[in-house]
């Protein structure tokens, strides 16, 4: 009998850890919840509930690859445990893998035939798959697709006499116009589509002319600011400008991808950034993030928002312009700035990044994909991505890349951080994230980094979220996805 006691204590201790993890989860402390579920799993790895709960916490942190693995493990332990299929299905859904999600929700319905919630979600999933099949059937191959931008003449779009919002006189976007537009946006007024066309089309011309890797020169005695993900949080973007000044030739910014999706003021954010780019191209630099893509915008709200506030044609137009965004920047030959991270192969040179043909939707593998999707990891070497796309890379990979390209530092974004930033890899890699209280629930700070030339030491400034109108995050997102968030 005494031999059974340690096992019993393991089981009861695992249950205690699960309860603590559940509490952390309720408090939106998802990383802490994952740590506690992991400890419970180490004590009792045959409990499907622990794996499914950890999958849910991973989903909240957008670690969909890990969520799928945990959901699969829960199903292996107990093939009749509906939550395992449910959690895995939700993660597939968040990655846009609707057909895989459908199979899991069919299984949930089979296991819980009388559950109205399961029926409702299955119906929504079936609808999403049907819509996808229809879109695939009517889509035109990339090679035959005509440019939407080339078919638009914004001069011919009439502005109604009753329109009282910001106006661009002639072809030049001025600071006065941008300030008036920001005031209108602050008061939840829309910009006339004539001026929206003009800003987006002029930005497209500017971006198309740039290389895939842009070199930025900051003169001695001048400064330069790098911001991370803004994710449609327009009022927090305004706060950055309050704290650090509006973009100008003497106060330049780089916004490092993920301008849109999640937050419900994504259109205001993107038109603001694009307008500053038109006003003064050297005042603002823009990099592509993994959310500047059709597949993400379809799921996470930007597409629905653009359709609601402007029109269907703008959905196509933004998709085209996002394909023109550069993939990375190098500041003063020393600081490499990229949205996601580094590569699955050694020996990648800056010239390889310059040579990428970026004018396309992001592929699911290769250098372009990894630039947009990868994440650092604490252990050396490379590992699978928590997200299910890209990879994880260690400090040795960062160090080697910097040495081989005569660089000092990697700055990247792409991940929520409690303090708005995190310094890793022996100080050689900084993550900066500029969407405080992400999705109105994470409680994180935002941050930006100011570099002063010539020493280019990173000076990190953190800030908290500011109030915004009562429009929930993901208000325009795929109906179906909102049911699971």
- In round numbers, the mean pLDDT is 94
- What characteristic shape results from the CA principal axes? globular
The percent range for helix content is 40-55%
Number of strands: 14
Range of strand content: 5-15%
| Rg for CA atoms | 23 Å
Major beta sheet, specifics? Answer: 6 strands, mixed
Give a structural overview:
There is one protein chain. By secondary structure, the protein is an alpha/beta fold. The chain is 45% helix and 12% strand. The strands form three sheets. Strands 1-5-6-10-12-11 form a six-stranded mixed beta sheet. Helix 9 (193-208) packs parallel to helix 14 (312-322). The two termini are 46 Å apart. Keywords: Hydrolase, Manganese, Metal-binding, Repeat, TPR repeat.
């Amino acid at each position: 009998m005494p031999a059974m006691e340690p096992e019993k204590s393991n089981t009861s201790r695992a249950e205690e850890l699960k309860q603590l993890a559940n509490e952390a989860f309720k408090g939106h402390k998802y990383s802490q919840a994952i740590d506690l579920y992991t400890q419970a799993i180490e004590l009792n790895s045959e409990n499907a509930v622990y794996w499914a709960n950890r999958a849910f916490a991973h989903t909240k942190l957008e670690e969909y690859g890990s969520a799928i693995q945990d959901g699969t493990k829960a199903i292996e332990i107990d093939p009749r445990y509906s939550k395992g299929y449910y959690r895995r299905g939700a993660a597939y859904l968040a990655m846009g893998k609707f057909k895989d999600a459908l199979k899991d929700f069919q299984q949930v319905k089979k296991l819980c035939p009388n559950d109205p919630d399961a029926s409702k979600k299955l119906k929504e999933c079936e609808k999403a798959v049907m819509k996808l099949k229809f879109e695939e059937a009517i889509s035109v191959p990339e090679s035959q697709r005509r440019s939407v931008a080339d078919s638009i003449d914004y001069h011919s779009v009439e502005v109604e006499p009753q329109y009282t919002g910001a106006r661009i006189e002639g072809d030049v976007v001025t600071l006065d116009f941008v300030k008036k537009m920001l005031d209108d946006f602050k008061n939840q007024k829309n910009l006339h589509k004539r001026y929206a066309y003009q800003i987006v089309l002029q930005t497209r011309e500017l971006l198309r002319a740039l290389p895939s890797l842009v070199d930025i020169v900051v003169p001695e005695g001048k400064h330069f600011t790098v911001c991370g993900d803004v994710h449609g949080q327009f009022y927090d973007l305004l706060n950055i400008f309050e704290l650090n000044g509006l973009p100008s030739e003497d106060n330049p910014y780089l916004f490092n991808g993920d301008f849109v999706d999640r937050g419900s003021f994504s259109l205001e954010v993107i038109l603001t950034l694009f307008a500053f780019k038109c006003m003064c191209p050297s005042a603002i630099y823009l990099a592509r993030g993994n959310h500047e893509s059709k597949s993400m915008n379809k799921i996470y709200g930007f597409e629905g928002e653009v359709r609601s506030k402007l029109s269907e044609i703008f959905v196509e137009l933004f998709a085209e312009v996002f394909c023109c965004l550069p993939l990375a920047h190098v500041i003063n030959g020393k600081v490499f700035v990229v949205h996601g991270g580094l590569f699955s192969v050694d020996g990648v040179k800056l010239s390889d990044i310059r040579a990428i043909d970026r004018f396309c939707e992001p592929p699911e593998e290769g250098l372009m994909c990894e630039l947009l999707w990868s994440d650092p990891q604490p252990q050396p070497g490379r590992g699978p991505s928590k997200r299910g796309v890209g990879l994880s890379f260690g400090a040795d990979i960062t160090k080697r890349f910097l040495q081989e390209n005569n660089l000092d530092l990697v700055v990247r974004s792409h991940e929520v951080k409690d303090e708005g930033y995190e310094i890793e890899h022996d100080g050689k890699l900084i993550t900066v994230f500029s969407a405080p209280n992400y999705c109105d629930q994470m409680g994180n700070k935002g941050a930006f980094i100011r570099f002063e030339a010539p020493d280019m030491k990173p000076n990190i400034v953190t800030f908290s979220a500011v109030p915004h109108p009562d429009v929930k995050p993901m208000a325009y997102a795929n109906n179906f996805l909102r049911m699971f968030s």
